[in-house]
Write a structure and sequence with these properties.
CATH class of the largest domain: Alpha Beta
Mean pLDDT: 92
Strand content: 25-35%
CATH topology of the largest domain: Nucleotidyltransferase, domain 5
Order of helices and strands: EEEHEHEEEHEEEHHEHEH
Strand order of the largest sheet: 6-7-10-9-8-11-12
Radius of gyration: 18 Å
Number of domains: 2
Low-confidence stretches: none
Number of strands: 12
Distance between the termini: 14 Å
CATH superfamily of the largest domain: ATPase, nucleotide binding domain
Largest sheet: 7 strands, mixed
Helix content: 25-40%
Structural class: alpha/beta
């Protein structure tokens, strides 16, 4: 059994994987990491694997939360090659651990070229060629961050709940529609760059909201990072 932990900027997501399926899982705010520890102490597992993009402070808090467990965690760091994926970054270690794990997760789930999207606090849009080469990608503000930045940086665009519309006729809906189409447009352009056979794999808190407006084949995965972490832990066995 493998305990996979994805520490994001806003939330920590975790899952217990065994026998090819997810047996348990949950999420807490990254600022409240210690809340997950009592649950973990009740579980049985052989390995712990972690992707952390929330910085040194979050890592220290997670280390304290894991210190009472008998298993030492594997802290994921992007490599040049792992689990069938070749890292095309000039400096492989500069790639975020979550993006690396998501690429590996997508490679295990999809055959052929695809664009791998993590739609969280930030949205990442990465090209994974059919031969397993990560050929680069984009980082843009996430859907909620786009909307809140408009409210914080302008006097006349308050943060209000809007609705998607083909022809928005109120300010809140204009913002909602504009931010959704900005996300979808970036994704669709990257998919187009891969050719007509390319697909999209999308995960994260805003994944379903964005996927509804994509004009390309898209597969929503509940947590692509966790899928990749399990593959990394399996390859690291021994």
């Amino acid at each position: 059994m493998i305990l996979a932990i994805d520490v994001g900027n806003t939330r920590l997501k975790w899952g217990l994987h065994a026998g090819g399926v997810w047996r348990d899982g949950g999420a807490v705010l990254t600022a409240e990491i210690s809340r997950a520890a009592p649950r973990w102490r009740k579980l049985s597992f052989e390995r712990i694997v972690v992707a952390n993009v929330a910085g040194a402070s979050a890592r220290k808090r997670l280390e304290r939360a894991l210190s009472r467990l008998a298993v030492a965690p594997i802290w994921v760091e992007p490599k040049r090659r792992q689990c069938g994926v070749l890292n095309g970054y000039r400096n492989p270690g500069q790639l975020g651990a979550d993006r690396w794990a998501a690429l590996i997760g997508a490679r295990s789930l999809v055959t052929g070229p695809c664009v791998v999207v993590n739609a969280g606090t930030a949205t990442t849009v990465d090209i994974l060629r059919g031969d397993g080469v990560f050929a680069g990608g984009l980082i843009l503000p996430g859907l909620d961050l786009m909307k809140t930045s408009l409210a914080r940086s302008t006097a006349g665009l308050p943060l209000r709940k809007g609705r998607f519309s083909e022809g928005p006729r109120d300010t809140a809906s204009a913002i909602e529609t504009g931010c959704l189409l900005a996300q979808a447009g970036a994704i669709e352009r990257m998919v187009a760059s891969l050719g007509p056979d390319a697909a999209c794999v999308i995960s994260g808190g805003s994944a379903r909201s964005i996927a509804r407006h994509l004009r390309v084949r898209a597969r929503v995965v509940d947590n692509l990072v966790l899928e990749g972490l399990v593959r990394i832990a399996a390859e690291s066995k021994g």
